[in-house]
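Input (structure):
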């Protein structure tokens, strides 16, 4: 797997502005200085932001004067970003330990993963529905289940203006309702929930479904977290030992994560393409030129047959069924897009988010890695630094990837995830066994989620490459 060449790349890319001297940075400007230099070096749209131009400042003194005009490092960071219509995903954190936790699947969480929809006929009032519940969480211990509907928090009805404030608190009470014909009917029940630091195992469901001559493996995978790659490989080993003939990969609630994990997952699904190009990275102009001149292979993410010293358990499939929703984003879309040139990808569900760009974590250190990080603060950035395309150079899906068979989850007919009668899984099974049954039809008026728990925190929809 490729490595990011921080120690080599930095001096090369700063050669055009050698008069900028890090030693002349006042302590009160250190954070802002880190923000500007990190964005100048790595930001994907660096050449489109005038204040990030390599010749914008002749020396550190001029840069300091510019930085002094921003009392908030977050304001500076946002100023240096291109329009949010183009860059919806770059973020800055005042505490990198929080950032690191989110990227590894550890968050302040009560275990209730939910989505939000508008109430029928309203553009103001919204309601939440529980998509799944994490095991051994507060929500799990208190009996919250998939399909539960909540219309208010602490007795306050949810609206487009207050849902973030109400749901971002550490403790709250969800006021429950019944779902009837599209209407939300309060039922007088409630559950009090408290968030704790919780690590989410992205392998939520792993099961085998026997249908005649077909042995169908079903895997719900909810996040590309590298620390679970070995466990994912073990799961594929189990599927392989069961001699599955088909795989249904459920990514409907997977908002992304590590490119390395995505490449490994693709290698587990296949196996016959070891060493071939899976995905190619495209950086900003100066970083791209450097990589292409010194080490072009650094831009490649290739299929692999190992994770460290362990062999990857590959299924050698030529077809895969992938379930998606509007929440399927970044690394999930990467898997779909970059597998298509190699095998038949049958996508069932809704159109995906449309995130074809990735980020890296930048720390305030001489190399922007965590080595020798500045002890005076804990700021870190997660800016968008690259676009990822398939082996043929295609990566234009900012409007999302359209499914082969379109279907939006119906809140009036939700089943247990992994149950063969659950609508999306059942649709995939019927395609596999060629039952002749049609994919369920969407109603004339489609009710879609407009927000979900992971999208509430931009970092949970990131696709990123690791600093090694």
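Output (sequence):
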């Amino acid at each position: 797997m490729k490595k990011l060449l921080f120690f080599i790349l930095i001096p090369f890319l700063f050669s055009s502005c050698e008069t900028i001297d890090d030693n002349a940075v006042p302590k009160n400007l250190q954070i802002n200085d880190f923000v500007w230099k990190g964005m100048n070096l790595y930001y994907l749209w660096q050449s489109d932001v005038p204040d990030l131009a390599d010749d914008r400042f002749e020396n550190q003194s001029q840069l300091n004067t510019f930085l002094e005009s921003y009392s908030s490092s977050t304001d500076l960071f946002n100023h240096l970003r291109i329009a949010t219509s183009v860059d919806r995903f770059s973020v800055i954190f005042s505490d990198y330990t929080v950032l690191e936790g989110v990227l590894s699947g550890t968050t302040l969480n009560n275990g209730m993963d939910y989505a939000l929809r508008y109430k029928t006929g309203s553009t103001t009032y919204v309601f939440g529905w529980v998509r799944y519940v994490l095991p051994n969480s507060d929500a799990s211990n208190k009996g919250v289940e998939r399909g539960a509907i909540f219309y208010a928090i602490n007795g306050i009805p949810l609206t487009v203006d207050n849902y973030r404030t109400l749901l971002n608190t550490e403790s709250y009470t969800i006021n429950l309702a019944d779902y009837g014909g599209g209407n939300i009917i309060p039922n007088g029940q409630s559950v009090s929930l408290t968030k704790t630091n919780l690590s989410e195992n992205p392998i939520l469901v792993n099961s085998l479904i026997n249908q005649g001559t077909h042995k169908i493996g079903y895997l719900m995978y909810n996040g590309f977290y590298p620390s679970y790659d070995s466990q994912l490989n073990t799961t594929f080993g189990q599927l392989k030992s069961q001699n599955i003939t088909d795989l249904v990969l459920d990514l409907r609630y997977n908002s992304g994560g590590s490119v390395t994990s995505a490449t490994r997952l693709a290698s587990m699904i296949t196996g016959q393409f070891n060493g071939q190009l899976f995905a190619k990275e495209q950086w900003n102009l100066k970083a791209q030129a450097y990589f292409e001149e010194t080490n072009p292979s650094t831009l490649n993410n290739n299929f692999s047959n190992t994770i460290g010293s362990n062999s990857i358990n590959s299924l050698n499939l030529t077809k895969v069924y992938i379930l998606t929703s509007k929440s399927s984003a970044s690394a999930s879309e990467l898997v779909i897009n970059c597998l298509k040139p190699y095998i038949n990808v049958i996508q069932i569900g809704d159109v995906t988010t449309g995130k074809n760009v990735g980020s890296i974590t930048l720390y305030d250190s001489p190399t922007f890695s965590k080595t020798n990080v500045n002890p005076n603060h804990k700021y870190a950035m997660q800016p968008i630094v690259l676009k990822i395309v398939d082996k043929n150079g295609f990566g234009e899906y900012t409007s999302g990837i359209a499914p082969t068979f379109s279907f939006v989850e119906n809140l009036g007919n939700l089943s247990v995830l992994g149950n063969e009668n659950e609508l999306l899984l059942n649709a995939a099974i019927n395609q596999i066994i060629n039952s002749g049954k049609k994919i369920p039809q969407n109603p004339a008026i489609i009710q879609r989620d407009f927000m979900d728990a992971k999208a509430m925190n931009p970092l949970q929809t990131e696709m990123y490459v690791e600093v090694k």
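Notes: Confidence is low (pLDDT under 50) at residues 1-19. DSSP finds twelve helices and 26 strands in the chain.
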